[in-house]
Amino acid sequence: xKRNIYLTGLLLTxxxxxxxxxxxxxxxxxxxxxxxxxxxxxxxxxxxxxxxIPELKSENYFYPVDEFFPMLLASHDRYSYLxxxxxxxxxxxxQPVTYGMDVVVSNxxxxxxxxxxxxxxxxxxxxxxxxxxxxxxxxxxxxxxxxVSSSNADLLTTGSxxxxxxxxxxxxxxxxxxVWMPETREVxxxxxxxxxxxxxxxxxxxxxxxxxxGYLVYNEFMRGRDDNNTDDVAYMxxxxxxxxxxxxxxxxxxxxxxxxxxxxxxxxxxxLGSLLAPxxxxxxxxxxxxxxxxxxxxxxxxxxxxxxxxYNLNLxxxxxxxxxxxxxxxxxxxxxxxxxMEVNLIGVTTTGKNVAMTRIDSPYDFxxxxxxxxxxxxxxxSDYASGFEPRxxxxxxxxxxxxxxxxxxxxxxxxxxxxVEGNIPPNAENTGSTExxxxxxxxxxxxxxxxxxxxxxxxxxxxxxxxxxxxxxQKKHLPAAILTE
Length: 485
Description:
Oligomer: single chain
Number of domains: 3
Radius of gyration: 25 Å
CATH architecture of the largest domain: Alpha-Beta Complex
Number of strands: 25
Largest sheet: 6 strands, antiparallel
CATH topology of the largest domain: 2-enoyl-CoA Hydratase, Chain A, domain 1
Structural class: alpha+beta
Number of helices: 9
């Protein structure tokens, strides 16, 4: 997408005023404002909400680019952003230096204190966090001896080491209330290291009652095949390898876990959709993108690609697990497969990002990612600005204990497996009174039924409402970029 730099009317007016003072200082104004002028020109051209750009004063154009760019955004635009090129290069091509865990901060789930806690969502294999014994579902209640808060939670991402206090909830046998165990655990994370967060976090085949169910935890839609970066191409090749294994295993149902997937690149979504859709849909439109009324020449569509037919699972239905951070290309997957197959959603309401963003490289040291188009499916539908509400609502933050992703006892996976088998998910929070689960089968040995009450197999729900705050996932920029030639 070609970009031109030109003088705006504001610049010409100011330049005229400067030269009329006797000394032509136009070059000074141009030099000091050219970066902001470049940004303004791009936004007035391709920004989806260009008609809602606020009117700026001439002095605004002297602000640093990271302060100027937000001034141009429509009041409802939560997504467009500017990134320095070094930061963008690091995010896209280099392994981040990290402790290897993601967390979300919330109020105390037990209600016994007024403090905040950080719950571990994910731990990377081989990471400093894993080496220190941190597990998914752990509660961090203190960082370097201080109570957890949104202001110090950044210390959980990277650094030379950090000391943590871990606490565990339990049900008080006397009162029945959920409280913290009196014993805490102290751990020290070693220094952060460079690590790769492979988007294919878990892939496995689960056999249940004669059915083979594919399960994939997919955490980011990496760049598409049109990009020249070899690392990103390798991710696309890995996707094909993963689905080749699913196909060879004879998978006939599929659970796609997008609970921690904020999105990514649309060509990656196109490829994944082509692997999951019914084979009869290959070659049909997957999604189309509509730009603002000035740039209708940029409108285009992506089709479900027949070149992946040898990897396609030819599914008639799909089960998707959604979470607090399911957004953008993940929501595009839900919306754009619905014209061709039954898409079943379980978890919590998705973010509601029905727009796409374009990466625009500047001739300076920054990159902008403005919202440039609305995403539609083959039926012309794009009505998910408020997110997709799941058929069965289950908020994993409201339960303990947790298991590793991929463990069949894990809350959302266990409930989804029940749904796949035709049962109502036992932990669904929005089941109506007219909907009753099927009668369970008799145990194989009815004379000696298993009456154990392992708390881990029957998750306990907190009685108080939780308000998520700071999250390492929300700090990540994963744009749904449209890759143009």
